[in-house]
Specification:
The protein is built from twelve helices and 15 strands. With 433 residues, the protein is an alpha/beta fold. The protein has a seven-stranded mixed sheet with strand order 4-10-9-8-7-5-6, sandwiched between helices. A four-stranded antiparallel sheet has the order 11-12-15-14, covered by helices on one side. α8 links the parallel β7 and β8. α1 (3-46) runs antiparallel to α12 (415-431), α2 (77-92) runs antiparallel to α9 and α4 packs parallel to α9. The longest helix has 44 residues, at 3-46. Residues 1-27 have low confidence and may be disordered.
């Protein structure tokens, strides 16, 4: 072998050895980083003041990060529903409307939700679906606007909203003779004018987890003489809302996400106290009549939040929700927000450490003031990736075409869950490279 050939062979061997060393160093670094993150998760869980609440839910070894679609089952609900079915319905039957408090459930449960959204008692009524309540609130807002000034014939709707809100807004516009203007929330302040009657916005974007500025947007809407209607489906139970403090006019929300009311649990409608005497619901029903059993052919609305009721309440779902809300006793929504931000911060840090570069992109704002309680990651083959995650015991969800959504419910999600979810995600996308 020539001298040059011997040098080349030694050189190639050296490159190979150095390459193997670098791979080994990277592997050791990943193991070390994983060990550090896992240790931090253990420490964070040990100091978490909300960690004890996890025992109040029916959970298993699965990492459940889809509470922004359907909250976990509170352990108190099955027994309560058994009593409602067997004793209240089975034994007391019709007497339960009075003796078991069925008749007053919509406003009673509304008052239990009120502190979670920063509302005083007497402004929230529970019942119907979110879609139905969006319709009531939006048409009611347009009618209220017409009482204060003429010529308000425009509804502005969040262009990024959950589709149903858009459908309802379009229908409300047709029914009230208004023009519908879909706009990005950031565009709303500059678009407001003397024609604007009402603005329907989402507090948190359901796809990206972006938190919109409710105080500033509400103030801008009021400065223009219009009414603000907020959809709280992705914020109530996850972060402070402060409806009363910020003067929100009307708001709606579901109860099966962060409030853990169960699949199809009834939604709620908030009408600010000073607007209630003038609130004209587009769906007047016998249940919202001032004298519901008078059976008068003429409609006279009940006082206060009661005029937001329509028909007979869905008692089984409603009382399941009431039982579910018991987990909130003594829980501060501010402490929930603090943990929510810590969980999402830690998840993003773990994703950065565990997921190979370029495989995912966060769509969720890094700034706390702009972040709800979920993290959305853009990922190629997101549908298949989520399917594989679920098979490995990490449950989030997928939004077409390429978004992985992970919801963080502070009442039962821990930091160990977060570390495991990010680690499994990293392993899953690495296998697909």
């Amino acid at each position: 072998m020539s001298e040059r050939s011997e040098w080349s062979e030694q050189s190639e061997l050296g490159v190979s050895e150095r390459s193997e060393l670098r791979v080994s160093e990277r592997s050791e670094l990943r193991v070390s980083e994983r060990s550090d993150l896992y240790a931090r998760a253990v420490e964070l869980d040990a100091s978490d003041e909300l960690a004890k609440l996890r025992a109040q839910f029916v959970l298993d070894e699965v990492v459940y990060l889809d509470g922004n679609s359907l909250g976990a089952l509170p352990a108190s609900v099955p027994g309560r529903i058994d009593d409602v079915v067997r004793r209240q319905w089975g034994e007391l039957r019709i007497r339960s409307w009075e003796e078991s408090g069925w008749w007053t459930a919509p406003e009673r449960i509304g008052d239990r939700i009120a502190p979670l959204v920063g509302a005083a008692p007497g402004q929230i009524v529970v019942g119907d679906s979110t879609s139905v309540n969006v319709f009531k609130a939006l048409v009611g807002a347009v009618r209220l606007a017409a009482l204060s000034s003429a010529g308000r014939d425009e509804i502005i709707v969040d262009a990024t909203t959950f589709p149903t809100d858009g459908y309802i807004a379009a229908s409300a516009a047709r029914l009230t003779g208004c023009e519908l203007r879909p706009l990005e929330p950031a565009e709303v302040p500059s678009a407001l004018g003397p024609r604007t009657a009402a603005v329907l916005l989402n507090h948190v974007d359901y796809r990206t987890g972006r938190l919109h500025d409710l105080p500033a947007l509400t103030s801008a809407i009021h400065d223009a003489g219009a009414l603000a209607v907020w959809d709280l489906c992705h914020s109530a139970g996850a972060l402070p809302v402060d409806l009363d403090r910020h003067g929100v006019d009307l708001a709606v929300g579901c109860t099966y996400k962060y409030l853990n009311g169960g699949p199809g649990s009834p939604a709620y409608l908030y009408v600010r106290a000073d607007l209630q005497p003038r609130f004209d619901s587009p769906l007047p029903g016998w249940n919202s009549h001032a004298d519901p059993f008078g059976m008068s052919p003429a409609y006279e609305p009940a006082p206060g939040a009661l005029r937001g009721r329509v028909g007979t309440p869905d008692i089984l779902s409603m009382l399941a929700l009431e039982a579910a809300l018991e987990v909130w006793e003594g829980v501060s929504i501010d402490s929930v927000r603090t943990k929510s931000l810590a969980l999402t911060d830690f998840f993003l840090e773990c994703v950065e450490a565990y997921v190979p570069g370029g495989r995912v992109e966060s769509l969720t704002p890094s700034t706390h003031a702009e972040r709800g309680s979920q993290v959305a990651l853009r990922c190629a083959d997101a549908g298949e990736v989520m399917k594989r995650l679920i098979e490995q015991g990490v449950v989030g969800d997928f939004r077409h075409p390429d978004v992985l959504r992970f919801g963080f419910t502070p009442l039962y999600v821990g930091f160990g869950d977060v570390e495991r979810a990010a680690r499994v995600l990293g392993e899953t996308v690495s296998q697909g490279m």
